[in-house]
Amino acid sequence: MSFVSHVECTVCGARHDAKRLLTVCERCGQMLAVCYDLARVAKAVTREALRSRPPGMYRFRELTPLDDGEEPVTLGEGGTPLLALPRLAAHLGLGRLWAKDEGQNPTGSFKARGLGMTITRSRTLGARGFVIPSAGNAGGAAAVYGARCGRPVAVVVPRATPAGAIAEALIAGAHVFTLEGSIATCGRIVAKVAPRVGWFDLSTLKEPYRLEGKKTMGLELAEQLGWRMPDVLLYPTGGGTGLVGIPKGYEELRTMGWVTGPLPRFVAVQAEGCAPVVKAFHEGAETTAAWENPAATEAPGLRVPSPFAGRQMLKILRDTRGDAVAVSEKEIVDAQHLVARLEGIWTVPEAAALVATLVRLKERGAITREAETVMVFTGAGIKYAPPALPAPTDLTGGDDEIVERVIRALRV
Ligand SMILES: Cc1ncc(COP(=O)(O)O)c(C=O)c1O
Fold first, then answer.
1. pLDDT per residue over 221-231, tens digit each?
2. Measured in angstroms, how far is the CA atom of residue 104 from the centroid of ligand 1?
3. Angle, to 10 degrees, between the axis of helix 310-319 and the axis of helix 241-255?
4. DSSP-derived 3-state class of residue 78
5. CB 40 within 8 A of CB 1
6. Which pLDDT tens digit goes with each residue over 155-213?
7. Which of 15, 61, 260, 276 has the least C-beta neighbours within 10 A?
8. Whether residue 347 has its Cβ less than 6 Å from ligand 1
9. CATH code at 295?
10. Residue 322 included in any domain
11. What's the 236 CA to ligand 1 centre distance in angstroms?
12. CB of 135 shorter than 6 A to ligand 1
């Protein structure tokens, strides 16, 4: 049985019929969100009952928009580990520090959750094919889940998109288009193509189902911390699916009485060359303004000049007494090396920006040793071109000579 009550506009509150394939609010054009009969969910399932369910995002099935008996299009999304980072914490002078390692998802990024969920649900509601503008990972994930359910997918990405994500989409049989410009340019094209070909537009938060997948990060985090919320949560912010989705998950659990207390302080992190959320937050604006000439960045997922959900992200940052920080390219690269050396995690540059932010927050006394802190490591670094690294030591000569050289180099 589905526990969805209706779909609601996040701005004007207009109610929409959840049985229809929806995009944005039909009254005001803003972002929609799926609402549940949470009292009924709380009666139907307990925290204890979850323990016997397999890991993965459908373990929280009652809090997903799936109908009774609806089979998810899945590759095993979710159930990613919450890794303690004691060596990084000690290095930064922090206490309890965690990374939700979303790089361990199928497709190597957290995009698997949102795209798996929206392709599942929108297919059931009648979508015949999918078109998506992307910075790379979302397009790759859309292609993969489209293949998994035998539906065609078209992906439009900026030319500078990492080759791994383009290959992921191509090998899954998607139509892949690259162009000069940012995801905003791609979005304009997709908005015109989708209605003409009759395929569903999967643009970030311009349909209500992707958020329900991203929300499961919050549900998992709550369970993994023993039904507690951390004090601070850092999120690498582009279109903001997780920044809007994680608090949605927490709020639902709070309404059900599964967690109590205040939400964590959410910290949005962007790259200096394209930081519309950071700018709007510090200017006290109600929504984001388009960022002119977004610079190229090591972290392409953060290069979103006009996020559709700017208003919703800013509200979350303010409601939780959060913060917004923009970091430089050098800080991102240094932080990527730092977390790999100290914790063995080769994370994406987008997530490395969070580590760089912690360094900043610590320096200006904006985070204390007592604050339990979670970072969302959104993808696996191995998906991207390797960063600049020293060359390996090449060995030539006979075995004995090689052995001596190796031992000298190791200096043990
Ligand atoms: C690895 C990675 N991290 C973070 C982001 C930003 O995510 P969101 O659009 O949900 O803010 C993206 C988006 O492309 C991404 O691929």
1. 999 999 999 99
2. 15
3. 50
4. coil
5. no
6. 999 999 999 999 999 999 999 999 999 999 999 999 999 999 999 999 999 999 999 99
7. 260
8. no
9. 3.40.50.1100
10. yes
11. 7
12. yes
